Amino acid sequence: MDNRRDFLQKGLLTLGGALVGTSLLNAKEHIGVASKKVTINQNDIILFQGDSITDNGRKRDNVEPNNTDAFGKGYAMIAASNLLNKYADKNIRVYNRGISGNKVPQLAERWATDCIDLKPNILSIMIGINDYWHKRNGNYEGSADTYKEHYKKLLDQTLTALPHVKLIIGEPFGVKNVKHVDDSWFPELARYQDVAREITKEYNAAFIPYQSIFDKAEKRANGAYWTTDGVHTTLAGANLMAQHWLETVR
Questions:
Q1: Which of the four, 3, 209, 242, 247, has the lowest number of CB atoms within 10 Å?
Q2: Is residue 110 part of a domain?
Q3: How much of the chain, in percent, has pLDDT values that exceed 70?
Q4: Is 29 within the bounds of a domain?
Q5: What is the CATH number of the domain that holds 32?
Q6: Cα–chain-centroid distance for residue 201?
Q7: DSSP symbols for 103-172
């Protein structure tokens, strides 16, 4: 027994040393991804929420689920079309309620109608880039702490009304050296990304590390291949986002 205990202790020490040697970036990259999957069940309602990255030209007067016009041309449409194909036997309904320009406070203003009333079983939120960008442009006085405070209030409201909803959090991202985004965005944007990770852990959500996803994608093609301005996606970038979104569900 003592030998076994010694073996386990040595093994844990070795593992601990290896983890310490792993970069912080890699550690963040896997938070909420490898360990968290969202199960899709019969009759589930799936809601995509966010800003222009999610909106992507959808017809906002079309409020129907599973409707092409209601989804725009971005990652939400690509992910939804895959979901409806793969889970054709589950009678799921999928909505897109992203609105261009939104920050977390704008989500809160329309949350009752555009989230709570829809009663989603799975809620995907991709928000935060405008919370930073609008502050950077002088059009908003928020901060990363404000972002966290408002985000948590939004999720608390959601879980009070929908205690069993399963959450997917998309990380806000910026692809450097493509039009609007340059080195000056960092490290401040990274603090907003840290907030998204912290919220993921606190609310037991699935997490999609879009910053590292696009960083890796740039090894295959430059940033302008994936985004039009460092934030909004090209067709390839939308597919990349959808691919990784789909990896969070089963």
A1: 3
A2: yes
A3: 86
A4: yes
A5: 3.40.50.1110
A6: 13
A7: -HHHHHHHHHHHTGGG--SEEEEE--HHHHHHHHTTS----HHHHHHHHHHHHHHHHHH-TT-EEEEEPP
